[in-house]
Amino acid sequence: MKVLLIDTNHPLLKTGLEKLGCICDEDYTSTKQQIEEKISNYDGIVIRSRFKIDQHFLEKASNLKFIARVGAGLESIDIDFATKKGIQLISAPEGNRNAVGEHVLGMILSLFNNLKKADLEIRKGKWLREANRGIELEGKTVGIIGYGNMGKAFAKKLKGFDVEVICYDIKEDVGDENCKQVSLKKLQEKTDVLSLHTPFNELSHKMVNMDFINKFKKSFYLINTARGSAVVTNHLVEGLISRKVLGACLDVLEYEKLSFENLFENDDLPEAFDYLIHAENVLLSPHVAGWTVESKIKLAQTIVDKVEVIFYSEDKNIEEKDIKRVTGIGGLFFKTGNPGKLKKWYKTHLGFNIDDWGCTFWWKNNDGKPASTQWSPFKSDTTYFSPSTKDYMFNYRVDNLVALFKKLKEEKVVIVGEIEEFDYGKFGWIIDPDGNKIELWEPIDSAFL
What region holds the VOC domain (predicted)? Predict the structure, then answer.
C-alpha cells in the first residue's frame, strides 16, 4: 500500500509501516488543496490534527483504504462519510492513556498543594507557609465521566490513594475493580473531584454548563483533559466565583483551534479566559496531557500494530488450522465480601505473594519463557463479571486474540464489548452456553517482571 504522512510523528511510525511493506511519502508543508490534488494516489493517510478530513477531501481520495490518526480522537474526520466509503478509521488511545492518567493526577495534586502558587511566591522572596497549607486527596470521592481508555488509566493511578472512585458512562457495564459505575445523578451526589474523559461528540459538547454544575450536591474540583468544547468557560467562571467549583485543572480550553497548536492566534481572547489565567485556584497546561516522550513512541507503534492487524494479518498465513485457541489458564477471579481480609488470610496461612491485584503465579510456557496466572478476589458488588450473574470468572491465555475473535464471530459465539489493549496484553470477553463470562487474554508477561 502507498501511504501519505502529512504530520510529523516519531520515526518508528514510518519505519514500521515500511517494514510491513508500505511505501511511505512525507508531505508536511503542502496546503490542504495541494494534498487533495494527489490524495487519489494513496491507499492510506496518517494524520494528527493539521487540517480537517472533510467530505470534499474524501471525495478526492478515491483509493483511500484507511485514515490513521496518531491520537485518541477522530473529530477532525468526517466519520459518517468515511464510513460510507468503506474507509477504515484508526486511532491510538492506547498510546497516550498512561500519559493522560499521570498528567491528571499530577495536576490535581499540584492544585491541592498550591505548588504553582508557592513556587512563584518563593521566587519573589515570599515564604508563606500557612497561606499554602494544602488539602489531601485521601477520603474524597473522585468522579469520572467517560470510562474508556483515559478514564480507566486515571482510575488505575488512583489505587493506593484511599479514595472512592466512581464513573458515569453512556455504555453499560464498563466499571471494573478500580472504579464503580453509577448513574449521573449518583455521581453528582457524591463527587468531590470530577475528571472529564469524554470523546468529542454531540453529547459532550458544552456538557459542563451552569445547569450541570448546579446539580452537584457538593462543591467540587473540575479536571478537563478531554476536549475544551465539553466545558462552557463562562459558566465555569461563574461556578468558580460562586465557589460551587472550588478549583479547576484545565489541559484543554474551548477557545482552541482544531489543530490544538496555538491558542493565542486570536488577540481578542474572552473575558472568562482572562479570569482563568489570573485565578490562583486554576491550573492550566497547553493540551499536553497525552504529550510525553514515551507516548510519542507508543502512539506511533499503536498505529503500526493496528495497520498490521487490519491489512497484513492475511499475509502471515493465519488460517484456521494455525490458530491456537486457549493455551493456559490466565486467571481465577471470584467475588468476596472483603477482598483485603481474604488476601491477608491467604498470605498468612498459604504463603501467597499478595499485591494490589491478588497473587501472580509464575511458570514457564512450552518455549521456556516466563508465563503467569493471576489469582484475584473482587468485591461482591463488582460489575466486571457482568453480564454474567456468577460469582466467578475465568481468564484463559491465548496466542492471537484478534485472529481468534474473528473465528469466534464466525462461529456465532456471544462476544461482550470490543478487544481492549493494555501494557500487559490484549483482552476480550465472551459468554459460554451456561452464561459464564470468559476473559480471553493475549498476554505480555514481561510487563509484570
Answer: 328-443
CATH architecture of structural domain 326-447: Roll (3.10)
Q: How many CB atoms lie within 10 A of CB 401?
A: 21
75 backbone dihedrals φ, ψ, rounded to 5°:
-70, -15
Joined grid coordinates for residue 32: 490542504
pTM: 0.72
Question: Are the C-beta atoms of residues 196 and 224 closer than 8 Å to each other?
Answer: yes
> Residue 52 in contact with residue 76, Cβ under 8 Å?
yes
**What digits encode the pLDDT tens for the residues 268-307?**
778 999 999 999 999 999 999 999 999 999 999 999 999 9
Report yes or no: 258 and 234 within 8 Å, Cβ to Cβ.
Answer: no
Q: Is the model more confident about 325 or about 101?
A: 101
Confidence of residue 267 (pLDDT cuts 50, 70, 90): low
Residue spans per domain, the chain: 2-91, 96-290, 326-447
Fold type of domain 2-91:
Rossmann fold (3.40.50)
d(CA 166, CA 143): 5
Instruction: Return the axis-axis angle of helices 149-157 and 93-112, rounded to nearest 10°.
Output: 40
Third-level CATH fold of 96-290: Rossmann fold (3.40.50)
Angle at the Cα of 437 (from 435 to 438), degrees rounded to 5?
130
CA distances from 3 to 24, 254, 305, 433 (A): 5, 33, 15, 44
